[in-house]
Task: inverse folding
């Protein structure tokens, strides 16, 4: 049964079972992955899966069910169960399908080049990629072993159908290569990694570059020293700067705003970051890692500014949270097979600056460069922020030594207003952010 027939069968079964409205989603994936160790193939595996979900609505009640067996009797039983669950569910005054006027027209979707022209990556090609990356990592001075090296390929398909008339689907692909390297010996060992993924395999950097990067990162962490405790400038490397954007996006979630649990709840049309920054969501970036022709509710989507020149302009919303907030849904909801739609985003870009990373280090004088973050304690209501970190200590405008076992703490609403961007954003990622220098954080050394 093809996806169009599968999603239509789910809608038909829902109607027969007594649903007033319904939507169906089907997701399939085909994966090939390899791992190598010490110059030889360690493991090669392939997997295929298909899962589907059905949401039924009866009045202002809804329920979601999911399965993987496409047999018609299973679909019928699933639909009956969903209707029974919906009848027993509490009312949700905001639930419902998207308005027909807001639906995308799949036939008019732009060519986003989300599917690699090559049908698949062979296990042999992936093995060669992983071996080259592993060999490059071992050649880095100070690297004692490569903990893991691998490469993978995936092709996935998403299909949606709804009783409001929408039906559409799309495919995407990705090829990845990763290396985790260990430097040093005994109790002085340090580890780091590099991971790269592209929609098209031809866009991947040379595996040698990936392996060398992982090895160099591990070697640079050897012989860590102490950081000073106190209030110092902190430079979030572009490897981790996206985490700050992630905290902003969490506060921009329409569901958090509706619950009153966002420190940005009362900040619409107010400045929340410096005026030289904008944060945009572009679902139509060609070969973008998170591009899509329509959202999880079948709605038309287009690039939009969430923050414009530092001023908050929009929330992340699906149709339910938009109705709850009394706003028009902009499109962008996400949908899995086992839950109703929720607020989401696609390719995010934070404005970068015109100064190099090296210039930022020189001008910060004394402070901390963060290359790794662990854990998180974020107060959703106030923006109070605390995280474990490691990286490098800067003295007299130069990197002095690696540091670890640190805690950084501050207030997101306050220190985000001090951000200064570098010009080193990686435009291949789904969340594009440059290195960011901030003031107002307290550094505590373990």
Result:
């Amino acid at each position: 049964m093809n996806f169009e027939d599968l999603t239509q069968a789910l809608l038909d079964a829902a109607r027969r079972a007594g649903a007033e409205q319904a939507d169906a989603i089907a997701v399939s994936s085909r994966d090939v992955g390899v791992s190598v160790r010490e110059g030889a193939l360690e493991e090669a595996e392939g997997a295929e899966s298909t899962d589907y979900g059905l949401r039924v609505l009866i009045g202002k009640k809804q329920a979601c069910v999911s399965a993987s067996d496409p047999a018609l009797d299973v679909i019928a039983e699933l639909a009956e169960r969903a209707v029974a669950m919906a009848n027993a569910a509490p009312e949700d005054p905001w639930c419902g399908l998207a308005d027909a006027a807001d639906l995308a027209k799949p036939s008019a979707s732009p060519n986003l080049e989300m599917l690699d022209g090559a049908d698949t990556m062979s296990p042999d090609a992936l093995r060669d990629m992983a071996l080259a990356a592993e060999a490059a990592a071992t050649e880095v001075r100070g690297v004692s072993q490569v903990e893991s090296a691998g490469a993978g390929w995936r092709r996935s398909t998403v299909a949606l159908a709804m009783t409001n008339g929408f039906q559409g689907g799309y495919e995407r692909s990705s090829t990845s290569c990763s290396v985790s390297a260990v430097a040093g010996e005994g109790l002085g060992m340090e580890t780091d990694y590099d991971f790269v993924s592209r929609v098209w395999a031809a866009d991947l950097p040379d595996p040698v570059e990936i392996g060398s990067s992982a090895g160099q990162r591990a070697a640079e962490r050897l012989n860590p020293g102490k950081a000073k405790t106190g209030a110092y400038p902190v430079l979030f490397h572009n490897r981790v700067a996206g985490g700050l954007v992630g905290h902003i996006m969490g506060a921009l979630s329409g569901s958090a705003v509706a619950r009153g649990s966002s420190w940005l709840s009362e900040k619409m049309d107010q400045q929340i970051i410096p005026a030289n920054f904008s944060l945009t969501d572009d679902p139509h970036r060609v070969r973008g890692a998170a591009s899509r022709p329509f959202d999880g509710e079948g709605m038309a989507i287009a690039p939009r500014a969430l923050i414009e020149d530092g001023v908050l302009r929009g929330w992340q919303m699906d149709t339910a949270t938009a109705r709850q907030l009394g706003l028009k849904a902009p499109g962008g909801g996400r949908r899995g097979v086992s839950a109703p739609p929720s607020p989401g985003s696609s390719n995010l870009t934070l404005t970068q600056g015109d100064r190099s990373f090296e210039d930022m280090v020189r001008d910060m004088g004394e402070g901390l460069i963060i290359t790794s973050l662990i854990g998180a304690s974020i107060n959703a209501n106030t923006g109070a922020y605390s995280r474990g970190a490691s990286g490098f200590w800067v003295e007299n405008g130069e990197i002095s030594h690696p540091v670890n076992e640190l805690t950084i703490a501050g207030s997101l609403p306050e220190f985000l207003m001090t951000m200064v961007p570098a010009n080193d954003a990686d435009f291949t990622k789904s969340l594009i952010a440059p290195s960011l220098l901030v003031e107002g954080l307290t550094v505590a050394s373990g």
